[in-house]
Amino acid sequence: MIRLFTAATVLLLSFFTIADAADAPPEIRPVKISDNFYVFYGGGGLGGNVGMSIGEDGILLVDAMRDVTAPALFEEIRKVSDKPIKYVINTHSDADHSGGNAFFADKGALIIAQLNARYSPAQSDLKVSDAFSLIFNGQTVHGAHVTAHSYDDLIIYFSGNNIVFTGDTFTNTAPSYSFSDGAQGQYAAIDAALGFADDETAIVPGHGFIDDNAGLQSYRARCAEWIARIAALKEEGKTPAEMVEDETLLAIKRAFITRPRDSELAQSYIQRPITRVLTSELVSTVPLSSEALDAITGLYAFEDGSVAEIRQDGEKIFMVKSGDYMIELLAQSETFFKIRVFIDADIRFERNDAGAIAGFTLSDTGETTRARKLPDGA
Ligand SMILES: [Zn+2]
Questions:
Q1: Distance in Å, CA 67 to ligand 1 centroid
Q2: How far is the CA of 273 from the centre of ligand 1 (A)?
Q3: 13: CA distance to ligand 1 center in Å?
Q4: Does residue 224 carry a pLDDT above 90?
Q5: CA of 207 to the centre of ligand 1 (A)
Q6: How many Å lie between the centroid of ligand 1 and the Cα of residue 355?
Q7: Domain ranges, ordered by start, for the chain
Q8: Shortest CA distance to 133 belongs to which of 124, 115, 145, 120?
Q9: Distance 25 CA to ligand 1 centre (A)
Q10: How far apart are CA 74 and CA 54, in angstroms?
Q11: Are 96 and 42 in contact (CB under 8 A)?
């Protein structure tokens, strides 16, 4: 189970790394927005883009790149300012954005992340839930929680500099790689970013290049075309491997990429985003009674002794493990669930002789792991 999910997580996280691997040598590129604000471009496996507010309060960063690249990022920061680094706000918990958290925490920074980041390996100090604002360097920094690329996405807006950070809910170098909440989540993320923006706003994607309102509007339109085309191909019975060859879909993919680089046009760059739509937006579920939901929620112990919790959150059902992962279960029946985004994994609950849920078997690409349900209140 752990091995399987770790492998799957690495697959998701390495999406941009693989695509960038042909661009050598990778280097962090600073972009001066103003005397008091910089963006550092990542890419090339270094990690996502980073924002930096500098002023009388010190330095606040948006994201921290990877653990191995944080020292190089720190060097770039120090070329601009020697002020103390007070805060890092994560756009989400993926390692290419949060891997450097520990490095900057060590330098005295307080790490701010969305609450669901507790179910990830990312280190953080202060958790925020839905929306927040704080005053730093004389401007209001707004954060809005959305569920689009991950379950702990934050859209971050600096009112004084008029700059928005979208994390990986938006990129202009690849097709949409969102959908932890389906198309609805993707659009909600775009709307949250557009809600902060006017015609003058700089919009910084998690990967790719600084864009604007019009670029994000266009991305929204591409997302709708992308999902509609994949849905139509699915309807025709096409497999993901066949979808990759579809000329209409390829044209939509090319329109996503407003600053093309050869590596990003590679065939391999398209199948995973397609799969993400298929395994998120286009999975049907059956409604569960509250009795059926109550029966499966609770704590479960795996054979290795680790414990996961299955719980309801609104209409959704999640399996969460502190410091590790958060996955969404999609009901196919009262006891059989697919897992959003993880196409080859499913969970089947088992009952004991008395008819109560006794545990589940998780199957992932043919390998299985069992967990037993712990008594309520354990
Ligand atoms: Zn990323």
A1: 13
A2: 14
A3: 7
A4: yes
A5: 6
A6: 44
A7: 19-227, 290-373
A8: 145
A9: 19
A10: 14
A11: yes
- The class of domain 19-227 in CATH terms is alpha beta
- 19-227 with 290-373: one CATH topology? no
Query: pLDDT (tens digit, 9 = 90+) per residue, 139-158?
Result: 999 999 999 999 999 999 99
Ligand 1 center to residue 56 CA distance, Å? 30
Structure tokens, 189: 């993320």
In one-letter notation, the amino acid at residue 297 is T
| CB of 90 closer than 8 Å to CB of 101 | yes
Q: Which of 9-13, 29-33, 333-337 has the lowest mean pLDDT?
A: 9-13
Provide the whole-model pTM.
0.91
Distances (CA, A) of 281 to 182, 184, 226, 234, 243: 4, 9, 12, 12, 16
Residues 6+ apart with CB under 8 A from 214: none
Name the E strands within 35-152: 37-41, 50-55, 58-62, 85-89, 110-114, 126-128, 131-136, 139-146
The answer regarding whether domain 290-373 maps to CATH 2.40.128 reads yes
